[in-house]
């Protein structure tokens, strides 16, 4: 199968084009991806998956939003140790049922969730611009709190 780094290098061409596919492939292969910083700046890393985190990442793709929500709850309890789930959590920001919880979990992870900052800023802008969005103020406040916990990207 190869080492996590070999798998990551083979998948780099699809990392931003098909992020959901990348997460699914890595879960199937037992590899967790996360963003961090190296000497050149933000970078994507791979490692053998902690079985608990891999299970929760896999559950974030379930059709049942209750299962996705429970996975987010479990990742949130792990706090900064859930950092390998950041790519899947970024993907979960597109989930209308679980977005708020995904935002909260990114804040619980803290600085290791820095790759989510540009997406959170975009989401904050669109949330504030949508006068018809019922939970606009609540979501905006959670995004701001999360950005404060994560810090600059």
Folded structure, characterized:
The protein is mainly α and 153 residues long. Helices cover 58% and strands 10% of the residues. The chain is built from eight helices and two strands. It has helices at residues 4-11, 19-29, 51-59, 65-78, 86-92, 99-109, 117-129, 136-150, and strands at residues 31-38, 41-48. It has a two-stranded antiparallel ribbon. A hairpin with a 2-residue loop joins β1 (31-38) and β2 (41-48). α2 packs across α3 (51-59), α3 (51-59) packs antiparallel against α4 and α5 packs antiparallel against α6. The protein is globular. The model has no long low-confidence stretch (mean pLDDT 82).
Write a brief caption for the model.
Helix 2 crosses helix 3. The protein is mainly alpha-helical.
Secondary structure blueprint with pairings:
Elements: H1 4-11, H2 19-29, E1 31-38, E2 41-48, H3 51-59, H4 65-78, H5 86-92, H6 99-109, H7 117-129, H8 136-150
Antiparallel strand pairs: 1-2
Helix pairs in contact: 2-3, 3-4, 4-6, 5-6, 6-8, 7-8
Gap between N and C termini, in Å? 33 Å
Q: What percent of the residues sit in helical stretches (DSSP H or I)?
A: 55-70%
Residue runs with pLDDT of under 50 for 5 or more positions? none
Structural class: mainly alpha
Strand order of the largest sheet: 1-2
* Topology as a string of helices (H) and strands (E): HHEEHHHHHH
What summary fits the major beta sheet?
2 strands, antiparallel
Shape: globular
By DSSP, the count of extended strands is 2
How many helix segments?
8
Rg from alpha-carbon coordinates: 15 Å
> Beta-strand percentage?
5-15%
Mean pLDDT: 82
């Amino acid at each position: 199968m190869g080492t996590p780094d070999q798998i990551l290098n083979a998948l780099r061409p699809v990392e931003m084009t098909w992020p959901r596919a990348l997460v699914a492939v890595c879960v199937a292969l037992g590899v967790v991806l996360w963003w961090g910083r190296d000497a050149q700046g933000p970078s994507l890393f791979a490692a053998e998956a902690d079985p608990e985190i891999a299970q929760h990442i896999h559950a974030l793709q379930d059709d049942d939003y209750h299962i996705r929500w429970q996975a987010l709850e479990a990742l949130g309890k792990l706090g900064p140790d859930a950092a390998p789930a950041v790519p899947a959590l970024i993907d979960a920001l597109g989930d209308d049922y679980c977005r708020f919880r995904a935002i909260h979990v990114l804040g619980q992870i803290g600085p290791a969730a820095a790759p989510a900052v540009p997406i959170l800023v975009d989401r904050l802008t669109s949330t504030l611009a949508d006068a018809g969005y019922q939970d606009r103020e609540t979501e905006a406040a959670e995004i701001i709190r999360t950005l404060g916990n994560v810090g600059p990207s």
